[in-house]
């Protein structure tokens, strides 16, 4: 008599209503470990301006993680243009495309890329933690929002959980949370969005200028279209972005906002539930992460990543082996010596492909 046993493999689909956390989310973890706060902010600003962006790395798994991890910081918006986590060698001509793109390239191909006619391209080298940009995108963003984001990222730099993702979420809410005040509601008419009301909601000249430009971005247009479709279809929406708006000071208290609440209350209970979401559901996810990593700090996560890579490759490559042979153009890099030394052992393990 024989007994046949079958083992079924399964995996749990990530909850899209929760923010990615460290160390559970591999993409975010590797991105935050490899790239310092200053360069993360510059890359974030470049994405908000929909630039042509290249991310370079000598290890494919880290390359894809950094591409996915950086794009995830735009939530609740999504990159709407060319998106290639790893560009095959025979498609290098894509780097010369005139439209915005977010492309990952293996370090071995970078010499060929630099021989191309690359104009106005932002380049992040993950191995050396350096960023090249011809733009002042970060300086063009409202300083109060960026300063708050930078401080939050520094505070969570030694902790696990969703602190990094939530810091960017708060920045997105500060930039775009007032979109609800620009919703136009007319009896028996579909809800529409008024760009002029959205921009004029703020007194700050810097914020107005940023929002004026933002209304022309594809990622913002797609976000607004998606929200309007859900509102007008009666489906409603509920996500951590709306919860963050309700908990913060972004919603405002003007007549348009209260008119929206009143109209929704009369129209659809489903939508009302999303608008009036309490803070409790969001607070439940703030410190949620796996039990076996609950007390693990970022340093331990970094050490484990380094040890894993050394075990795979036999040895850790030196910084000299990773530095590009040609001197890069103007760089934005870590200026704090202490921060650079803290990051250096982590970037070392992103070495040659096995």
Automatic annotation (TrEMBL):
GO molecular-function terms, A-Z: guanyl-nucleotide exchange factor activity; phosphatidylinositol phosphate binding
Biased composition (Basic and acidic residues): 333-345
Top-rank taxon: Eukaryota
GO BP, sorted A to Z: endocytic recycling; endocytosis
InterPro entries per the UniProt record, alphabetical: cDENN_dom, dDENN_dom, DENN_C, DENND1A/B/C, Tripartite_DENN
Xref: SMART domains: dDENN (SM00801), DENN (SM00799)
Pfam families (UniProt xref): dDENN, DENN
Major location (coarse): cytoplasm
Span of domain UDENN: 1-234
Record-level GO cellular component terms: clathrin-coated vesicle; cytosol
Localization annotation: Cytoplasmic vesicle, Clathrin-coated vesicle
Region (Disordered): 315-354
This protein's UniProt keywords: Cytoplasmic vesicle, Guanine-nucleotide releasing factor
PANTHER family documented for this protein: DENN DOMAIN-CONTAINING, DENN DOMAIN-CONTAINING PROTEIN 1A
Protein name as catalogued: DENN domain containing 1A
Taxonomic placement: Eukaryota, Metazoa, Chordata, Craniata, Vertebrata
């Amino acid at each position: 008599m024989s007994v046949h046993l079958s083992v079924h493999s399964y995996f749990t689909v990530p909850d899209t209503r929760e923010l990615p956390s460290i160390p559970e989310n591999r993409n975010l973890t590797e991105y935050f470990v490899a790239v310092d706060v200053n360069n993360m902010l510059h890359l974030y600003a470049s994405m908000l301006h929909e630039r042509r962006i290249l991310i370079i790395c000598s290890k494919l798994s880290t390359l894809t993680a950094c591409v996915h991890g950086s794009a995830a910081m735009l939530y609740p918006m999504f990159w709407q243009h060319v998106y290639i986590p790893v560009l095959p060698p025979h498609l290098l001509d894509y780097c010369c495309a005139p439209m915005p793109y977010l492309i990952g390239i293996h370090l071995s191909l970078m010499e060929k890329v630099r021989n191309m006619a690359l104009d106005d391209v932002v380049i992040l080298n993950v191995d050396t933690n350096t960023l090249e940009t011809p733009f002042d995108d970060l300086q063009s963003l409202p300083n109060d929002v960026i300063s708050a984001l930078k401080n939050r990222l520094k505070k969570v730099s030694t902790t696990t959980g969703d602190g990094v993702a939530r810091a960017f979420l708060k920045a997105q809410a500060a930039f775009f949370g007032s979109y609800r005040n620009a919703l136009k509601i007319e009896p028996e008419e579909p809800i529409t969005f008024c760009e002029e009301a959205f921009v004029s909601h703020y007194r700050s000249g810097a914020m107005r200028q940023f929002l004026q430009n933002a209304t022309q971005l594809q990622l913002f247009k797609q976000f607004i279209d998606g929200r309007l479709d859900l509102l007008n279809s009666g489906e409603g929406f509920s996500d951590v972005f709306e919860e963050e708006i309700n908990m913060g000071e972004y919603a405002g208290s003007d007549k348009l906002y209260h008119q929206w609440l009143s109209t929704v209350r009369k129209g659809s209970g489903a939508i009302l539930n999303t608008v009036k979401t309490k803070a409790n559901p969001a607070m439940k996810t703030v410190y949620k992460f796996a039990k076996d990593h609950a007390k693990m700090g970022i340093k331990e996560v970094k050490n484990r990543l380094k040890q894993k890579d050394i075990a795979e490759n036999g040895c850790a490559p030196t910084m000299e082996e990773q530095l590009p042979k040609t001197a890069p153009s103007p760089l934005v890099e870590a200026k704090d010596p202490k921060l650079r030394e803290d990051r250096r052992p982590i970037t070392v393990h992103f070495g040659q492909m096995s």
